[in-house]
Write a structure and sequence with these properties.
By secondary structure, this protein is an alpha+beta fold. Helices cover 48% and strands 25% of the residues. Strand 5 and strand 6 form a beta hairpin. The longest helix has 27 residues. The protein is globular and about 50 Å long. The termini are far apart.
Length: 194
């Protein structure tokens, strides 16, 4: 459900953004003015694979799961976005303007976003925003490379230890079958590891 964007939302977005690269209110002003907030109930989708998707999102609070599914309805968890954080950039999660992933709130969550084309235009006018966008994209590429390496090279117990280190408390917030899917193991194997 869309809701009015508050000053607290804008400040939260700016704080999250500053965690990647130095930006000021003035640099981010066009994006903050266009910011739209949205409250998601647990189980509510932010994105569906195949739907038009041309926005950049910040998770201000709550927890969002990123996943993909196949024709048989099986889902694989790609990641968890625990607020406050930024969702992976639009360029990494879309093809031809449509989402390649599902993004679903696992608990009541607040998100805020703006048009991806506006980000591109703002990056061209403000070098600080360009550096920020580059840092977010670089961070996402490194995260994906680390995940591929972990799935290919590490035993499940080490993957679980790394997840626990990166996201303490996640096991208390998320169904274990979703964590098993993220780790590339069966729920039974995860149960044994725990």
């Amino acid at each position: 459900m869309l809701s009015s964007t508050t000053d607290a939302d804008r400040r939260a977005v700016l704080r999250i953004a500053a965690g990647f690269a130095p930006v000021t209110d003035a640099d981010f002003a066009p994006l903050l003015q266009a910011l739209e907030g949205r409250d998601l109930a647990a189980g509510e989708a932010l994105l569906h694979a195949g739907q038009a998707d041309a926005r950049e999102f910040f998770v201000l609070s709550g927890l969002v799961r990123l996943s993909v599914g196949d024709a048989q309805g099986r889902e694989v968890t790609l990641g968890f976005c625990a607020g406050p954080c930024v969702l992976p950039p639009s360029i990494t999660r879309t093809r031809d303007g449509h989402s390649r992933i599902d993004a679903t709130a696992l608990e009541p969550s607040r998100v805020a976003g703006f048009d991806a084309a506006l980000l591109t235009a703002t990056m061209l006018r403000h070098p600080a925003v360009q550096r920020w966008g580059d840092a977010v994209l670089r961070g996402e590429l490194l995260r994906k490379a680390d995940r591929e390496w972990q799935l290919a090279a590490l035993p499940a117990a080490e993957r679980l230890a790394l997840l626990r280190e990166a996201m303490p408390g996640l096991e208390q917030r998320v169904a274990h079958r979703l964590i098993a899917s993220y780790l590339g193991v069966t729920p039974v194997t995860l149960s044994r590891l725990r």
